[in-house]
Every structure is written in structure tokens, then in C-alpha cells.
Amino acid sequence: MGPMQNLIETKLKAGLTPSYLRVENESHMHGGSALESHFKVTVVAETFTGQRLLQRHRSVNQLLREELQNHIHALAMHTYTPEEWESVGESPASPDCRGGSKHI
Amino acid sequence: MQDMQPEQTQDTEARIREQIAENPVLLYMKGSPKLPSCGFSAQASQALMACGKPFAYVDILQNPDIRAELPRIADWPTFPQLWINGELIGGCDIILEMFQQGELQPLVAEAAPEVDENGAE
Fold first, then answer.
1. pLDDT confidence of residue A66
2. What is the ipTM of this complex?
């Protein structure tokens, strides 16, 4: 696991105490040279209960503010309560990048 | 990123606020719905088009000042961003999830401007 992937995991664990957390490095799906540029996170946390998706994503964005500003090009995010996760079971696949530009 | 003069920043912010106020369904994206330049923007605009109502979009690759300013104004770091009735709905993952849950379609239908059924302007 790369240092950025590790850092994302550590920060989300500390900030959300998730019951399930998966951080995937999807940089290989994209043309860029950076090896840790595109990530997908799947987070299941009790704290999301009663929150709209916008609020949940804001919480994650807030925890990763520095990384999003300076290091991460794209972050796919899938947030669930334990109850939702039980009925969904899997997060959707991310789209391929189309090259494009380097910044968020 | 290029530093902008304070007045330029103000102009950009005013422009963004005007766009958000005047377009009930507005997508900030990379590229255009017909020619998106990012997979996330492509998915978002496809879902929006599938709602079958007119919507406005801004290509942030053509508007570097908006690209620089909007994340701060929206308190949202990434693109695409969907705004409906002046409110941030979310990015690609939220748009798709709402579309799949059938929540996006009524939201867009209610907000979208009426289109003349005879097609006359």
C-alpha cells in the first residue's frame, strides 16, 4: 500500500470510526504518471445515519481537505450506514478517466 | 495556480452566483455533455440528460477562474458539481446514486424551466 492510500485510511478511520472501510488506488485506470492520484473510498459508518449524501461527502472531504487540495486528482466516494450497506453489499465501479487535465 | 487580483476574484464570484441564481438546473463540469473530458463529468451529464429536461452547464476547463473560485464558494473540492434551485446537490457519485434511486428525476423535473410544447420560442 502506498503512503497516500495509507494516509487516507488512517484519517478516515480516525475521523469516522467506520465499521467497514475500503480505500482503493485506482490510479492505474487513468493516464496520469502519478501512482497515487485516483482513489475510491467505500465507507460504512454509524455516524452517517440520518445524514444526506451531501453531508456525508462533506465530512469525508473535510477529513481529506489537505490531500484533495494538493495530492489527489480524483476521489470516488461511496458512503453507507451499516443498515444501507447490508442491503447494498457492494459499491459501484468508478468510470475511467479520459485524460483531461491534471487538477481537481 | 495563478494568483488572481482581489477585484478579479470578486468578479468571478459574482459571475458564479449569477449563474447559480439564474439557472435552476446547472452542472459545472469538465468539457461539455456532448464531449466530456473526464469520466466523472461524463457519467454525471449522462444521468442528467437521462432525466429528459433542459439543463445548463459550465465547462470549467474553459473557465479557469471559475474552476479556481467555485470550490471555495461551494465548500466542495471537486468537479462535477450539480446545482439545483441555487443549492448544491453534490458530485458525480451523489448524482448517480440519486438517479439510480429515482430521486434525481423528480427533483430535476420540478426545477427545470417549462419548455413550450409546440417547440416555439
1. 94
2. 0.81
